[in-house]
């Protein structure tokens, strides 16, 4: 009995694999390493003292999936594999739809053939678009995504809902992540962005360590408490435990479920800088520039459904997120490249 984790070598995947191994689950990973390296999983094995099976393959490769389902008694799938850069998705829409949507379709098809019943999908708060309702709850309208990445998540959620309707024996869960940050407290695994980071916290830590010179704050004139964008930052270890809670919940409730995974608290860009400076003792050089196209003013979660149904709540606070991100950055200035 094993859990198949697609994209398990990536940022959220590696932390979730660690949590699964720690509690004694057997884990099989499929990852094409397009945005990750084997090193993350080697470190997960070293941290846990457990081993896992890694297939360096693409989820679009049916034969590879068939082999995995033949070789292992898979009971559950956690589907992280996907491309995730918003800006790149605007430049390369076909690649994004092919990888994210087709990859999910092929995986689902092979999963059905293999008789696997439980599926957890990495969705995103981006499916809510620019909602007028804050905090966002699962009943809020979805849609209005502004880029192919976000639209691919919305399309996959729709596909999953249809597949669940046609196959009521399945248990499909969409987890809508808010803004994942932080790293394992050991500093051995963490987020390793390619090139210049697009997301806020990796940019801040790279300015702090001297790899980048100045953070551009995208907009100081939003209708928020200090004019900068407000988001719901969640520690990646809390996200990992959210997946475990969703796995444990699988036999209860409807065949198709969706849950927000956030803290329920919104922090501005300036809040984040202040918290980071406090945790690191380093002052971050920044300037306020134009808004970034496609950004929304504020977004945070109502995560009470996950609390009620999954018995899950994010417990790590902002200072812990900052401390662990900084620890990872300091110990791995070049990410997984030694
Ligand atoms: P990541 O890029 O670190 O991890 C994704 C992993 O999938 C990588 O290891 C990559 O090599 C692999 N992969 C990509 N396409 C593949 C394919 N076709 N076949 C096999 N492997 C493939 O990203 P992450 O931050 O860990 O995100 C994991 C999932 O969560 C993604 O689906 C992402 O869209 C979603 N998500 C992420 C965030 C975030 O801010 N990090 C927010 C919301 C949702
Ligand atoms: C982005 C994606 C979203 C994705 C999420 C998590 C966009 C438009 N949205 O969300 O689809 O689900 O990442 O991966 O890209 N900021 C700066 N300077 C920077 C970087 C960011 O001021 O250099 C600000 C942003 O304007 C925003 C906040 O920091 O207010 C967070 O930005 P970011 O980390 O990119 O996440 P989101 O925009 O929330």
From TrEMBL:
Gene Ontology CC: one annotated term: cytosol
Cofactor(s) required for function per UniProt: NAD(+)
Pfam families, per the entry? Epimerase
Q: Kindly report, in one word, the top-level EC class recorded for this enzyme.
A: isomerase
Entry's Gene Ontology molecular function annotations: UDP-glucose 4-epimerase activity
The UniProt catalytic activity note for this protein reads: UDP-alpha-D-glucose = UDP-alpha-D-galactose
An annotated GO BP:
galactose metabolic process
Which pathway features in its UniProt record? Carbohydrate metabolism; galactose metabolism
Domain named NAD-dependent epimerase/dehydratase is located at 3-262
Q: Does the keyword Isomerase apply?
A: yes
Stored CDD domains = UDP_G4E_1_SDR_e
Q: Which UniProt key words apply to this protein?
A: Carbohydrate metabolism, Galactose metabolism, Isomerase, NAD
Report which superkingdom the organism of origin falls in: Bacteria
Might you give the EC number(s) for this enzyme?
5.1.3.2
**Similarity annotation:** Belongs to the NAD(P)-dependent epimerase/dehydratase family.
Which proteins does it associate with, and in what oligomeric form?
Homodimer.
What PANTHER family does the annotation carry? UDP-GLUCOSE 4-EPIMERASE
Cite the NCBIfam families for this sequence. galE, PRK10675.1
Name this protein carries in UniProt: UDP-glucose 4-epimerase
Instruction: Provide the organism lineage as a comma list.
Output: Bacteria, Pseudomonadati, Pseudomonadota, Gammaproteobacteria, Enterobacterales
